[in-house]
TrEMBL record:
Organism this protein belongs to: Ollibium composti
Pfam families: Sulfatase
Record-linked CDD domains: PMH
Name used for this protein in its record: Alkaline phosphatase family protein
UniProt keyword annotation of Metal-binding present: yes
Domain of life: Bacteria
Key word Hydrolase present: yes
InterPro entries: Alkaline_phosphatase_core_sf, Sulfatase_N
Segments forming domain Sulfatase N-terminal: 6-385
Length: 516
């Protein structure tokens, strides 16, 4: 790598499950390009996000902070302007971080006029990034491109993910086999990738930093041809779940609330005519099959990006990080989406390709140590030779990328979820608790997973003997000592990670004392 010209490429694919990588042996997913990148880098197999949904999880990814510290807990909860992030820190190294896609950032309202349009959306751009192509949910730039190509989208955003009319669907395929009205070369993933490659073409003589964000495989679960037919639903296993929806709901009040919340057509899957919670087996298998097809579409465009970097000589000057913001239940426990406490919502893919010689020894390796989304910001800053802010909750992954494992590396992961509904008070009313009580935190190691709620019963799962998290052990008398031990571990974690921006500074008569 040429020292004076390092580049950083942080790729995030929305709602990608950590097990959905063909290199890990998934029976349906095809990800040859991510597999190849992992073979030339490092694949992290126990990587977890910090929170859900989209805005909060991206905030943790980009600020290096746990939810308990950044406090932007919902799509729409303002992010305190005092927090730094990876883009602001990279600017101190002379970079102009460019965004392709979205960060789902809710602006701090305290210094904004009441009429500022930033107060009407949770999809503002995180400070520090320059929006090379901002593509939030409205997707106006992409829709304009489709209109210019002659597509009839009189309803604008409402029409862009409508199923192709008049499509002849075979009897052995579900509704989500029907493709989009446009082919794959006109999808939002293709449009975004085209724009990024065009942007790269003018930046071969200066270092760059880009955050590239795929919408997919985020729902709606509708894929352009040929990705709609890439996986036969007959080859797809049914999700792990209780024998009945009612039996599932009995596990916990919050799970029952979430299943009820998602039990209406269109709530989870835009333009879908059926309720995914109670859909029949064919439709569930088809939804899963289409999700896998969307991952293959993302992988195709990832391959285009890597191929371009190699062709232009940028590949060996670029740190490449590929991950997700949060994952997807995909029908497990009858649930869809990501707003529930199971591993399937928090376990993420992570592949890092470091071009430095120091990383050669670990190329093609897999790291099964626990890593977290908050580690990404410190890793990038460490790689750039920049100091990591004291406030960061994560740790640099460079020692792992170089083939080592620090002796004090974490033995568990921690994640949180704020499920309050400030505007509607639906969660609060349904569960009989206050907004500030609508939260849980989880600690998960290789043996147990403990989930502590502010005002609801706790959960304890044996991850060795019950990996699908079907049996709550928290209320069993013989498990009382284990529950206590994990509750103490949770308290230790929160005490040691509470906001510590200034805590290792001390003002004396001789001046400021500061410890790293």
């Amino acid at each position: 790598m040429t020292a004076q010209r390092p580049n950083v490429l942080l790729i995030c694919a929305d709602q990608w499950r950590g097990d959905c990588i063909s290199a890990l042996g998934h029976p349906n997913v095809k990800t040859p390009n991510l597999d190849a990148l992992a073979a030339d880098g490092v694949l992290f197999t126990n990587h977890f996000g910090q929170c859900t949904p989209c805005g909060p999880s991206r905030t943790s990814l980009l600020t290096g902070l746990y939810l308990m510290n950044h406090r932007s807990g919902r799509n729409g909860t303002p992010l305190d302007a005092r927090h730094t992030n990876v883009a602001l820190e990279a600017r101190k190294a002379g970079y102009r971080p460019a965004l392709f896609g979205y960060t789902d950032t809710s602006a701090d309202p305290r210094d904004l006029d009441a009429n500022d349009p930033a107060l009407t959306t949770y999809e503002s751009v995180m400070p520090g990034f320059e929006a090379a192509l901002h593509l939030p949910d409205e997707m106006e730039e992409w829709i304009a491109d489709l209109l210019a190509k002659g597509y009839d989208l009189s309803g604008g955003r409402h029409d862009v993910f409508k199923p192709k009319p008049g499509f002849d669907r075979p009897a052995d395929r579900g509704f989500r086999y029907i493709p989009t009205v446009y082919p794959a070369e006109h999808s939002e993933a293709a449009f975004l990738t085209d724009a990024f490659l065009k942007w790269l073409s003018a930046r071969r003589d200066s270092p760059w930093f880009a955050h590239f964000v795929f919408l997919r495989p985020h729902p709606p679960l509708i894929a352009p041809e040929p990705y709609n037919a890439m996986v036969d639903p007959a080859d797809v296993a049914m999700p792990a779940r209780a024998a009945s929806l009612e039996a599932e709901k009995r596990q916990h009040p919050m799970l029952a609330y979430e299943l009820e919340r998602m039990s209406e057509p269109g709530r989870y899957d835009e333009h879908s005519p059926f309720d995914p919670i109670s859909a029949d087996d064919l439709e569930i298998r088809q939804m899963r099959a289409t999700y896998y097809g969307l991952i293959s579409e993302v992988d195709h465009h990832l391959g285009r990006i890597v191929e371009n970097l190699k062709a232009t000589g940028e590949y060996d000057r670029t740190l490449i990080v590929v991950t997700s913001d949060h994952a997807e239940m995909l029908g497990e426990h009858h649930a869809w989406g990501k707003e529930i406490y199971f591993d399937q919502a928090f376990h993420l893919p992570l592949v890092i390709r470091d071009p430095r010689r120091q990383a050669d020894a670990a190329r093609g390796s897999r790291v099964d140590a626990f890593t977290e989304a908050v580690d990404i910001m410190p890793t990038i800053l460490d790689w750039l030779g920049r100091p990591v802010p004291r406030a960061c909750d994560g740790r640099s992954l460079l020692p792992l990328i170089e083939g080592g494992t620090p002796p004090d590396w974490r033995e568990a992961v921690f994640f949180e979820h704020d499920f309050r509904t400030v505007a509607t008070q639906k969660a609060e009313t349904t569960l009989g608790i206050s907004s500030d009580q609508c939260s849980y935190a989880a600690v998960r190691d290789r043996r147990y997973k403990y989930v502590h709620f502010a005002a609801l019963p706790p959960l304890l799962f044996d991850m060795v003997n019950d990996p699908h998290e079907t049996q709550n052990l928290a209320d069993r008398p013989e498990m009382a000592a284990t529950v206590l031990a994990y509750a103490q571990k949770m308290l230790d974690w929160r005490l040691s990670h509470a906001d510590r921006t200034l805590t290792n500074m001390f003002i004396t008569k001789d001046g400021l004392v500061s410890r790293p």
